[in-house]
């Protein structure tokens, strides 16, 4: 009997949570209102049962090339571009830089607005410049120096004690051993005791445990330099297969196959995005990523996400371009899938 009553209470709590979130999730036209407060504190407001699951079994929205909002039209061409594109940028910058710019921007919102909108996984690519000792964000063109945005993340976290973020340092361009040292020192200086140490298993890495230990940042560092540190997570523990296609059907097939075969014991990123190749860009010289590829992509991925569920072998981290479109509908859609876990949580997850 006692067990049964627990279930009734669980259902009541679930119903209250469900109603509170559904009301806000449906009002996607009202900007910057109480609606978005649901997104700003979505981890804090998850039911306790879900906070006791390993975070690799929750659905977590992320942004692809998070920091591209810091790029502007006059930025230099980055070392992540092929050599001939860099040469074009140098010698015909009037023509080529605007083209690179139009295809390099993947996000418009500042890091604070992304976090307020529910984003909890950040995809970071960094590079140095030959001219100075600083580290910059990069995607086609150089973005801002890394220091201010990282400080903004730390500051945001100090006002949101029960939210956690995953920083994925994916690519390092023109990086020496010294540059790695400089970057790691910067990460440690800014995030200090908020950094979650690596574990050999994710079983205990739940929101509940992270909150208890006051860990708010998981740093993935996809370079062997990370081997020297106990709180830089290696690439192998967070799989992130890249679809590399401009074709929506190919993308959906890729996402399905990868999700079906995802390793159960580690983190997993579904990259819901189309990638323009050089021939595509040449055919659409006056185009932009947002105008030409993103609408068809969003039309396909939102229903795809809706059909999936988190849990064992299910959705985990899901990333996309222009995550704030339609008042953060992508984030709402990903977070909403966590509701599918609720009734099963005691039994099968």
TrEMBL record:
Q: What is this protein called?
A: PI-PLC X domain-containing protein 3 isoform X1
Ranges where the Phosphatidylinositol-specific phospholipase C X domain occurs? 52-222
List, alphabetically, the SMART domains matched: PLCXc (SM00148)
State any GO BP term from the record: lipid metabolic process
A GO MF annotation of the entry reads: phosphoric diester hydrolase activity
CDD domains, per database record? PI-PLCXD1c
| Pfam families tied to this protein | PI-PLC_X
Q: Which InterPro entries match?
A: PI-PLC_domain (IPR051057), PLC-like_Pdiesterase_TIM-brl (IPR017946), PLCXD1/2/3 (IPR042158), PLipase_C_PInositol-sp_X_dom (IPR000909)
């Amino acid at each position: 009997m006692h067990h049964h009553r627990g279930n009734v209470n669980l259902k009541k709590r679930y119903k209250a949570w469900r109603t509170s979130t559904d009301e806000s999730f449906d009002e996607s036209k009202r900007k910057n209102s109480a609606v978005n407060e649901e997104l700003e504190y979505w981890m804090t407001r998850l039911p306790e049962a879900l906070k006791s699951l390993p975070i690799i079994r929750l659905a977590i929205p992320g942004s692809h090339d998070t920091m591209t909002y810091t790029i502007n039209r006059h930025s230099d061409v980055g070392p992540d571009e092929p050599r001939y594109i860099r040469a074009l940028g140098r010698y015909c910058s009037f023509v080529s830089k605007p083209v690179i710019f139009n295809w390099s921007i993947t996000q418009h919102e500042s890091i604070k607005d992304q976090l307020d909108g529910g984003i909890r996984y950040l995809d970071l690519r960094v590079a140095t410049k030959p001219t100075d000792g600083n580290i910059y964000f990069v995607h086609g063109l150089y973005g801002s120096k890394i220091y201010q945005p990282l400080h903004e993340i730390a500051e945001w976290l100090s006002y949101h004690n029960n939210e956690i973020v995953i920083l994925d340092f994916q690519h390092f361009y023109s990086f020496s051993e010294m540059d790695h040292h400089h970057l790691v020192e910067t990460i440690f200086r800014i995030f200090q005791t908020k950094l979650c140490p690596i574990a050999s298993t994710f079983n205990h890495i739940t929101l509940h445990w992270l909150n208890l230990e006051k860990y708010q940042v998981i740093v993935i560092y996809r370079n062997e330099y990370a081997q020297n540190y106990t709180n830089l997570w290696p690439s192998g523990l967070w799989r992130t297969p890249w679809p590399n296609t401009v074709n929506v059907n190919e993308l959906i097939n890729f996402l399905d196959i990868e999700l079906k075969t995802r390793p159960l014991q580690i983190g997993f990123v579904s990259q819901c995005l189309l990638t323009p190749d050089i021939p595509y860009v040449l055919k659409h010289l006056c185009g932009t990523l947002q105008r030409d590829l993103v609408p068809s992509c969003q039309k396909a991925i939102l229903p795809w996400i809706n059909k999936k569920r988190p849990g064992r072998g299910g959705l985990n981290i899901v990333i996309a371009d222009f995550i704030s479109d339609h008042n953060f509908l992508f984030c709402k859609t990903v977070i909403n899938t966590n509701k599918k876990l609720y009734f099963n949580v005691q039994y099968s997850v």
